[in-house]
Specification:
Blueprint: H1 19-29, H2 32-61, H3 67-71, H4 73-77, H5 105-114, E1 127-132, H6 143-161, E2 164-168, H7 182-192, E3 198-202, E4 206-208, E5 225-229, H8 231-234, E6 245-253, H9 256-266, H10 275-285, H11 296-305, E7 315-318, E8 325-326, H12 334-347, H13 351-354, H14 364-375, E9 393-395, H15 414-431, E10 436-438, E11 446-448, H16 455-459
C-alpha cells in the first residue's frame, strides 16, 4: 500500500517571527484585480484539496474500510515493505508505569518513527496536550460544570491549532495523587505517543485565552523542558522561592532526558521512602513555603536551584509572554483587551479583511496569522502586565474549582467570576466563527453578530 504522509500539526512560529504571518496576510489581503484572481485561484485549489481530503478522511475513518487500510500501516511501513518490524512495543521490559525506568528511549522512538514514514516531517511541530481531573465527582456543586467548560476550552484550542489532546480522569498510580498525578500520566503518554515530539501539560484549572497563538517551538530548540519562571527567583541559592516557577503548565520533550528527569522528580514524591524527609528539606530551603509537604513545584525548583544541577542547562524558563499567567493580574483587563482587538479590526489597514467571515477550522491559521501581523501596528504586540496582547494561558492557581477549597486570600466570588470571564473571553473567539458571542463577560446567553462585525457594531 502506498505510504500516506501524515503530519502532526503544531507550530514552530516564534512570537516575533513575522515571515509566515506576513505571507499569510499577503495571501488574504492582496489588491484589486490581482486579489480577485488570487482569491479565485485559492478557492479552486481549496475546493480541490478539500475534496481530496474529505475522500481520504472518509477512507481512513470508515468502519467498512478494508483491513489493509486500517491495520496495514505497520507492515507496509517496514523496510522494503517486506513484512512486520518489531518495535519497543514488543519489548516486555518497556512499560508505561513510573516504577520501571526506560533506557535507550531516543533510539527506540527513532526506530518507531523510521517504521512510520507517513509521519516524516512532523518533527518539532508535533505536540500532545495532556490534562486531566479526578476520577470522582467534584465536591463543589458547580465543580463538574466548570471542569466541563475547562475541558471544552482545551478541546477548542487543540482543534483550531492542530494539537492532539489527551484528557485523563484515572489515577494511573493511586499513591501519586493530587499534584504528583501528572508524572505517571506524562510518562505513559510519552510511551503511547512516540509521534509526539512535545508533551504539553496543562492543569485542568488553566484557560487558553488566545485561540490564535501557537507555541513558539523553534524558540525552545536545544531545551527539553519549558516552564514559566524567573531565573532570579529559581537560581538564587541564597534566597530561592518555591513560586519562582509554576509547574501547572509546562512543555517536556519526548526523549530520554525527560524520562530520566521525571524519574528524579518522582523520587521526591509520595512513592519515595524519603518523602517526609524531602518535605522537611524543601521547607527549610524555601523560606516562603508555608506547608511541610513535598510538592511537585518546590521539588522542581530544588532540582534546578544549584549551579551543579545536571538538569539546568536543558530547562527554558519562559517569561516573555503569558506561557501561563496568574489570573489575578489578568481577568480585570480582559474587557479592555477585547475592546482594543475590536478597535484594531475597525481601523487597521487590513481591517476589512480581518473581519471577513471564513470557515471555522480550515481558514483559522491564515486569519490568525493575519491578526498576528496586525498587532504591532495597533500597539498590541507586547505581552504581560504592561502590554495588551491576549494572554495565552490564564491559570487559576489556588481557585480549586472541583473541591471548592480555594485559597483564603481570594475573597467572595473572585475565582468564580474570574473563571467565567476568562472562559467567555476565550469562547467568544470560537463562537465568532459561528456568528455569535456572549451577551456580556459574565453572561451565559449569546447573541448573533451583525454582518461585518465589529465595524457594524461601531456604526450603531
Amino acid at each position: 500500500m502506498p505510504s500516506r504522509r501524515l503530519r502532526c500539526a503544531g507550530s514552530t512560529t516564534a512570537p516575533r517571527d513575522g515571515q509566515r504571518h506576513r505571507a499569510a496576510l499577503v495571501r488574504i489581503t492582496g489588491t484589486g484585480t490581482g486579489m480577485a484572481r488570487s482569491l479565485l485561484g485559492d478557492a479552486l485549489l481549496f475546493s480541490a484539496g478539500a475534496a481530496v481530503g474529505a475522500v481520504l478522511l472518509l477512507t481512513l475513518a470508515s468502519p467498512f474500510a478494508p483491513p489493509a487500510v486500517l491495520l496495514g500501516r505497520r507492515s507496509s511501513s517496514a523496510a522494503g515493505g517486506g513484512g512486520d518490524r518489531r518495535t519497543f512495543y514488543d519489548d516486555p521490559e518497556v512499560t508505561y508505569t513510573v516504577d520501571r525506568p526506560i533506557t535507550g528511549w531516543d533510539e527506540k522512538r527513532a526506530q518507531w518513527l523510521r517504521a512510520h514514514p507517513e509521519l516524516a516531517g512532523a518533527g518539532e511541530g508535533c505536540v500532545l496536550m495532556v490534562s486531566g481531573s479526578q476520577p470522582t465527582p467534584c465536591r463543589s456543586p458547580t465543580g463538574d460544570h466548570v471542569l466541563t467548560r475547562l475541558l471544552k476550552n482545551k478541546a477548542d484550542y487543540c482543534r483550531l491549532n492542530g494539537v492532539q489532546l489527551l484528557y485523563n480522569t484515572a489515577l494511573l498510580r493511586p499513591s501519586m495523587d493530587r499534584y504528583w498525578a501528572k508524572i505517571p500520566l506524562i510518562r505513559a503518554a510519552m510511551v503511547a505517543h512516540p509521534e509526539a515530539e512535545w508533551v504539553w501539560w496543562v492543569d485542568s484549572d488553566a484557560v487558553l485565552t488566545d485561540m490564535d497563538f501557537r507555541l513558539p517551538l523553534r524558540r525552545y530548540r536545544g531545551h527539553n523542558l519549558v516552564v514559566n519562571g524567573w531565573p532570579s527567583l529559581v537560581y538564587d541559592e541564597a534566597s530561592p522561592s518555591w513560586t519562582g516557577l509554576n509547574a501547572g503548565v509546562f512543555l517536556v520533550r519526548n526523549c530520554q532526558w525527560s524520562l530520566d528527569f521525571m524519574d528524579a522528580w518522582a523520587a521526591m514524591g509520595p512513592d519515595s521512602p524519603d518523602y517526609r524527609r524531602w518535605g522537611a528539606v524543601l521547607t527549610s530551603t524555601f523560606r516562603d513555603k508555608v506547608f511541610n509537604e513535598s510538592d511537585d513545584q518546590s521539588a522542581l525548583v530544588y532540582m534546578l536551584q544549584h549551579k551543579g544541577s545536571p538538569w539546568r542547562a536543558k530547562v527554558f524558563l519562559e517569561n516573555d509572554y503569558y506561557f501561563q499567567g496568574y489570573w489575578v493580574e489578568i481577568v480585570g483587563r480582559l474587557g479592555e483587551i477585547a475592546a482594543r482587538y475590536e478597535a484594531m479590526e475597525r481601523r487597521a489597514p487590513a481591517a476589512a479583511l480581518l473581519r471577513k467571515r471564513h470557515a471555522a477550522s480550515w481558514d483559522h491559521a491564515a486569519y490568525a496569522a493575519a491578526r498576528e501581523a496586525a498587532l504591532a501596528g495597533a500597539g498590541l504586540a507586547e505581552s504581560g502586565v504592561r502590554g495588551w496582547r491576549r494572554p495565552f494561558v490564564t491559570h487559576f492557581t489556588g481557585c480549586q474549582p472541583c473541591s471548592g477549597d480555594r485559597n483564603r486570600d481570594y475573597s467572595g466570588d473572585s475565582c468564580d467570576d474570574g473563571m467565567r470571564r476568562a472562559l467567555n473571553f476565550a469562547d467568544d473567539q470560537v463562537l465568532r466563527d459561528y456568528g455569535f458571542r456572549h451577551a456580556g463577560p459574565l453572561s451565559d446567553d449569546v447573541r448573533p453578530l451583525p454582518f461585518d462585525y465589529p465595524a457594524a457594531a461601531g456604526r450603531r
